[in-house]
Write a structure and sequence with these properties.
This protein is mainly beta and 141 residues long. It has a single domain (19-140), classed as Sandwich (Immunoglobulin-like), CATH 2.60.40. It is 13% helix and 50% strand. The chain is built from 2 helices and 9 strands; from the N terminus they run αβββββββαββ. Strands 3, 4, 6, 7 and 9 form a 5-stranded mixed β-sheet that branches. The protein has a 4-stranded mixed β-sheet with strand order 5-2-1-8.
Length: 141
């Protein structure tokens, strides 16, 4: 088998594996803090969301809290992450006004303010979410 054929086969196998599945086999929504970028009088956050569930989220409003480098609450905000189709990876951006990126110690996913899919409102969305962050950044739950 040629090397290029083997690589193509490997990609097909990896594509068949659910993108955001926990080690215990449950389907999850993976939320990754990917990047913080300075803006004029704000810090822009980039969240990468992977919907590893079979649900098509029409609403997924996250309650996020930014802490400064001393661990003191600096800002609280609501971020709408929907729409989020099943099996889809999405990028969501939001600005934290009046905050410098180098002054942010970590972000906390405090709760889910609203969550709904094709079957209506859901109460289990916080449990469905796993959080990660790129090196040098911190997103906790």
């Amino acid at each position: 088998m040629r090397f290029s054929t083997m690589i193509a086969a490997l990609f097909l196998i990896l594509a068949a594996i659910p993108a955001a599945q926990a080690q215990d086999g449950t389907q999850k929504v993976q939320v990754e803090l990917n990047k913080l970028e300075p803006q004029a009088n704000a810090c822009r956050a980039y969240l990468v969301l992977q919907n590893g569930t079979e649900s098509e989220f029409s609403s997924l409003r996250l309650d996020l809290v930014a802490f400064d480098t001393d661990g003191i609450v600096a800002k609280r905000l609501a971020v709408e992450a929907a729409p989020l189709p099943p099996g889809k990876t999405s990028l969501k951006l939001f600005d934290m006004s009046e905050l410098a990126c180098d002054g942010i110690g970590h972000l906390l996913l405090n709760s889910v303010l609203a969550c709904g899919d094709q079957n209506g409102e859901r109460a289990d969305c916080l449990d469905l979410i796993d959080v990660t962050a790129k090196p040098g950044l911190s997103l906790i739950k």
